[in-house]
Design brief:
Layout lengths: L5 E4 L8 H11 L7 E2 L9 E4 L5 H4 L4 E4 L9 H7 L2 E3 L6 H17 L1 H9 L18 E5 L3 H12 L3 E5 L11 E3 L4 H6 L3 E4 L13 H6 L5 E4 L8 H9 L5 E4 L19 E3 L10 H18 L9
Parallel strand pairs: 1-2, 1-3, 3-4, 4-5, 6-7, 6-9, 7-8, 9-10, 10-11, 11-12
Helix pairs in contact: 1-10, 4-6
Bound molecules: nicotinamide-adenine-dinucleotide.
């Protein structure tokens, strides 16, 4: 694949300044033009690095699209394949960032940090009930999906002394998990867990994966952590489970609709932590993306198969 002009789509500005990525890419390959482009400036681009998907990508003569996210559920895979446009994603870089974030959510619930922040805002010196705080050490975590994110979470939870089990399509063991269940045994896998962390991509198979029957199977003192994609959880059923105290709470970075609508009941639960889809955010994000893209620019130029290829 000949690459002379690689656009950085302005939508990456939702995650980091586009110029940072442009400079990092242009520095590495002076023969490659790397402009920051909007939808109406795609004409001369051979490829694009983007956050959002835009219909204009299909009209432009792009050979390759790189998504700065791991999830690619917003891209029209069939249409891209039909037109011979390669799509690559950014899986493989979020183990540390999302791993730390998911563990941070669990630590907050266990050590009651979210309640102290709330009290501080009200200038209130207030203690939790004596038996509310607990330690993560010895608690059971079930990680659903053991790819980059799932393994990053499992490794960090294991380091904190948690008993980590997981759900994996192959059912084969992975490092830092004591037991691995097959997806059909999901309810059995979550039954004894104090925390259930979701780390699967959004696919036809995983949409609504966690709903009323899973909340029913979970412990009443269990917390759900969703750092995957909103629609992996049936949100109405989550709200019902929280209202009926079927589970203790949830740490949610992703939602069926984002931004989470102001009228969503999820904002109001004391034991729900809402974060704005920022589990992977970190100041070096653009550097990790630059490394992935640079590697694929080299591969494309050498005529080799692209890494992280989705289509
Ligand atoms: P990955 O491809 O490395 O891992 C996904 C894993 O899930 C794979 O091992 C796959 O086999 C497994 N899987 C798929 N369907 C399954 C099922 N039904 N049951 C059990 N396992 C199943 O991807 P990743 O980098 O770990 O990212 C996973 C997803 O997390 C992404 O697709 C994205 O939607 C989301 N994500 C969110 C954030 C965030 O900021 N909150 C950041 C990165 C990724």
């Amino acid at each position: 694949m000949e690459l002379r002009r690689l656009g950085v789509h302005e939508s990456v500005g939702a995650v980091f300044p586009p110029e940072r990525l442009r400079d990092a890419l242009a520095e590495a390959d002076p023969d490659l033009a790397v402009p920051v482009v909007g939808d109406d400036e795609l004409d001369d681009c051979d490829a694009i690095v983007t956050f959002a998907y835009s219909e204009s990508f299909l009209d432009a003569d792009l050979r390759w699209i790189h998504s700065i996210q791991a999830g690619y559920d917003r891209f029209p895979l069939d249409a891209l394949e039909e037109r011979g446009v390669a799509l690559t994603n950014s899986t493989g870089i979020h183990d540390t960032s999302v791993g730390e974030f998911a563990v941070g959510l669990m630590l907050s619930f266990a050590r009651r940090l979210h309640t102290y922040v709330r009290n501080q805002q009200a200038r209130e010196w207030s203690h939790p009930a004596w038996d509310d705080p607990f330690t993560l050490d010895g608690e059971r975590l079930c990680v659903v999906g053991l790819g980059t994110l799932g393994r990053g979470i499992a490794e960090r939870a294991d380091a904190l002394g948690m008993e980590v089990v997981g759900v994996r399509r192959s059912g084969e063991p992975t490092p830092h998990t004591e037991t691995v269940y097959a997806p059909e045994d999901l309810r059995e896998a979550v039954a004894d867990a104090r925390f259930v962390a979701l780390a699967v991509p959004l696919t036809d198979e995983t949409e609504g994966l966690v709903g009323a029957p899973e909340f029913d199977a979970m412990r009443e003192d269990a917390y759900l952590v969703n750092v995957a994609r909103g629609p992996v959880v049936a949100e109405d059923e989550l709200v019902a489970a929280l209202r009926e105290d079927e589970i203790a709470g949830a740490g949610l970075d992703v939602f069926e609709e984002e931004p989470l609508p102001e009228e969503s009941p999820l904002w109001d639960f004391e034991e729900v932590l809402v974060t704005p889809h920022r589990a992977a955010a970190e100041r070096d994000y653009y550097r990790h993306i630059a490394e992935l893209v640079r590697e694929n620019v080299e591969r494309a130029t050498e005529g080799e198969e692209l890494t992280n290829r989705v289509v």
